[in-house]
Design brief:
The chain is of the alpha+beta class and about 575 residues long. Helices cover about 45% and strands about 20% of the residues. It has two domains: about 290 residues, TIM Barrel, CATH 3.20.20; about 170 residues, Beta-Lactamase. The chain binds ligand C2E. It is a multi-pass membrane protein.
């Protein structure tokens, strides 16, 4: 049976579906089948609501893609921050170590110079004393001048000879070292003074602050670096002050010299990690960001791709993309509508309507046919039940059911719910059994059919005459109607053998006292032939094509008006 405006013959599709759904076969949809599913749609039935893909799913897809995209940049930034922190701390440790090493060297040298003139302490500041002092200042690296003090006052300087100045002895840390902002000779150049005392007084070796600054600047990298002597400190700007050292929150190192009473402090202020990241790890971060973005996009694409038939159908079901189309069934005697067969259509946004024979077999194999049929029943009930009074008396509404339904105890509940939606006696529910999958009769199926019969549900055998199981079904189940397959109807008038077959089927139904419905009636000649054979109900394009459920009631009213007009005309 071929229906609709298919471009792909059924023989081409079915092997693919069968291969796909064979137990143990790949769970992924072959590309050909995916293409078939998405490309082969009919263009019938315009005016359907635009059912978009499930909103929930769309959000989940975006959320999952973001979750996939984020770890790489987060990991990249984490690694970058960790690496920057580690590097800044290492630099601070190294700066402190190098500074201590070099300053110790300088201070050792100035200490030696002060010790070298200790026998001159207390002696008068004559030419000989000055000569000794100048000699030491000239021959010791880093030492700018050497002075002598007595009784708390400077009295002899290598630079100017006799002098009298307060030494401010308490300002020397441990009595040995003093950091100064400048002195009488160079008031703006910091100095570091080493003091060597003996009972007669003290010798003072003065180191120029510019050496100290050079040491600091050579050792420093990205960090801040300070030399601290007592309360005074000297930073990389070369100034001496007693203001507190700024908070070094992102790296910190501090060490006190083991030889001289001073401390070196290094570290990184707030914002250094960010600067470090931007200057050194930017390409790495950009790469991590691009990687994250790429993986997020790939994830988004993959989630948007058809995965397994089950997933595709489940998503479509969640998105309410399966819609009921109704095709009228008429009384052969007067052509009046007695009800309709419900036929499922898949309304795929952007693609139009997908024919049921392209997805029903897959829905049956995946078991999704059960919730799909339930959804269809609910949709039909919700649209038609409020208009039950406008329907034909005991309106016949037929749903196709599959083998899986016959083993599903929920079918009974679904049928009950469907009938309960309508006022009692207004509709007659028909279940049409197809032969696509063989129904295995068991005690459970027997019980189910008995229960269905008990609540007034009728059973029809669909496509009767073309399958070998139809007769078995007749024996096994309580069958209320046979639907003659449209292939017999098509051959009416074509050959005598077909005519005989049709006659025999009709005779069988009459003998069994079962109702007959002929499908696929397209011409008046077919209608007349079937009517002459006493086939009770007819269905086919001659009376109406499958239509969206919302068009069914207006079409029914139109049909009634047309019949009324004809009767009026005749009378
Ligand atoms: N050429 C021609 N065709 C006519 C004429 N009158 C009706 N038809 C088509 O014949 C099919 C009759 O349904 P079916 O035999 O139950 O065959 C159905 C049924 O077996 C299955 N199907 C449809 N809806 C459902 C469903 O909700 N559940 C299940 N399990 N199967 C369904 O898909 C099959 C195909 O459905 P449709 O494509 O809707 O095709 C429908 C209908 O559109 C006519 O005059 N000429």
């Amino acid at each position: 049976m071929t229906t609709g405006a298919s471009k792909v013959p059924r023989w081409f599709l079915l092997p693919t579906i069968k291969a796909q759904t064979r137990p143990g076969s790949s769970p992924f949809m072959p590309r050909r089948l995916a293409l078939l599913l998405f490309r082969n749609s009919t263009s019938t039935g315009s005016g359907l609501p635009q059912a978009g893909p499930g909103r929930g799913w769309a959000w989940s897809r975006v959320l999952m893609s973001v979750l996939v995209a984020l770890p790489l940049p987060i990991f990249g930034i984490g690694i970058g921050v960790f690496q920057a922190q580690w590097q800044l701390q290492r630099q601070a440790d190294r700066s402190v170590a190098q500074t201590i090493e070099r300053l110790d060297l300088i201070l050792d040298s100035s200490k030696l110079a002060a010790e070298a003139v200790q026998n001159m302490i207390g002696k008068s500041c004559d030419m000989t004393t000055r000569h000794v002092l100048q000699w030491q200042a000239a021959t010791n690296p880093y030492v700018r001048s050497i002075n002598l003090a007595r009784g708390g006052r400077l009295y002899c300087a290598s630079l100017v000879g006799p002098i009298s100045m307060d030494l401010e002895t308490p300002t020397f840390i441990d009595g040995r070292l003093r950091l100064m902002t400048g002195n009488f000779a160079t008031p703006n150049v910091p100095l570091l003074v080493t003091r060597h005392a003996n009972p007669a007084g003290s010798a003072l070796a003065v180191v120029d602050g510019r050496y100290l600054l050079a040491v600091l600047q050579l050792a420093v990298q990205e960090d801040d670096l300070y030399l601290k002597v007592g309360d005074l400190r000297m930073g990389l700007d070369g100034r001496v002050s007693n203001t507190p050292i700024p908070a070094l929150s992102e790296a910190f190192a501090q060490r006190t010299s083991s030889s001289h009473p001073y401390t070196v402090i290094a570290g990184a202020r707030a914002g250094s990690i960010k600067n470090h990241l931007l200057s050194y790890t930017l390409p790495f971060l950009a790469l991590a960001l691009a990687g994250g973005l790429f993986s997020g996009l790939i994830c988004y694409r993959l989630l948007g791709r058809p995965s397994s038939p089950r997933t595709i159908l489940r998503r479509a079901l969640e998105a309410k993309q399966f819609e009921p189309f109704l095709q009228p069934i008429v009384d052969a005697r007067d052509g009046g509508w007695i009800g309709a067969e419900v036929l499922m259509r898949w309304h795929l946004p952007g693609e139009g309507l997908i024919r049921p024979d392209l997805f029903i077999p897959m829905a049956e194999r995946t078991g999704l046919i059960l919730p799909m049929t339930r959804d269809l029943m609910q949709q039909v009930a919700s649209v038609l039940a409020p208009h039950a009074a406008e329907l034909p008396p005991r309106c016949h509404i037929g749903f196709n059911i599959s083998a899986a339904h016959c083993h599903d105890p929920q079918l009974l509940g679904d049928c009950r719910d469907f009938l309960a939606a309508f006022p009692p006696g207004t509709v007659e529910l028909w279940l049409e059994l197809t032969e696509r999958e063989l129904i295995e009769p068991t005690e459970d199926t027997d019980l189910l059919f008995q229960q269905l019969d008990a609540i007034g549900v009728k059973v029809a055998i669909d496509d009767f005459g073309i399958g070998h199981a139809s007769l078995n079904y007749l024996q096994r189940f309580t069958v209320n109607a046979l639907k003659i397959d449209q292939s017999f109807v098509k051959r009416i008038g074509a050959d005598t053998l077909s005519a005989h077959l049709l006659d025999t089927l009709v005779e069988l139904a009459i003998r069994l006292d079962i109702d007959l419905v002929a499908e696929g009636v397209e011409t008046a000649a077919q209608r007349d032939y079937l009517r002459a054979l006493n086939v009770r109900y007819l269905q086919g394009y001659l009376f109406g094509r499958p239509m969206p459920i919302r068009e069914f009631l207006p079409a029914l009213h139109q049909h009634r008006n047309a019949v009324r007009n004809t009767i009026d005309h005749q009378s």
